[in-house]
Design brief:
- The chain is mostly beta strands.
- 5% of the residues lie in helices and 53% in strands.
- It contains 1 helix and 11 strands; from the N terminus they run ββαβββββββββ.
- It has one helix at residues 17-21, and strands at residues 2-4, 7-12, 33-37, 44-47, 52-56, 59-64, 68-72, 75-80, 83-89, 91-94, 97-100.
- The strands form 4 sheets. The chain has a 5-stranded antiparallel β-sheet, with no helix packed on it. Strands 3-4 form a two-stranded antiparallel ribbon.
- A hairpin with a 6-residue loop joins β3 (33-37) and β4.
Length: 103
């Protein structure tokens, strides 16, 4: 597992079938796959190199066929091996529910 701030990247051996046919999220203006964007700072947890990111209510998945790097303006860069990953955003408890941690 790899953690960068409020993002957890977990290697997975297999992904659901729907993920394989889902389109990748578009890249931002800098050509990066943005896994999470800071609401307060505008900083991004992002992958600048080749790959695909499927953002879906059923789950977020990252495919890095050549491996890659996870970058952020305020965190150390993390090298990721090639393969599929589940991307999990940290949540916090709010009485009666949960919400994503705001950056």
């Amino acid at each position: 597992m790899f953690r960068q701030g409020d993002i957890l990247v977990v290697p997975v051996a297999e992904v659901p079938e729907w993920v394989k046919s889902a389109p990748s999220s578009p890249r931002d203006g800098r050509g990066r796959l943005v896994l999470a964007l800071g609401e307060a700072t505008g900083h991004a947890h992002a992958v600048p190199g080749p790959g695909a990111f499927v953002h879906d209510p059923r789950g977020d998945y990252l495919n890095l066929p050549q491996g890659g790097r996870l970058v952020h303006e305020e965190h150390a860069t993390i090298s990721l091996p090639r393969g599929w990953f589940r991307v999990v955003r940290q949540r916090e408890y709010v009485p009666g529910t949960y919400r994503l941690v705001a950056d």
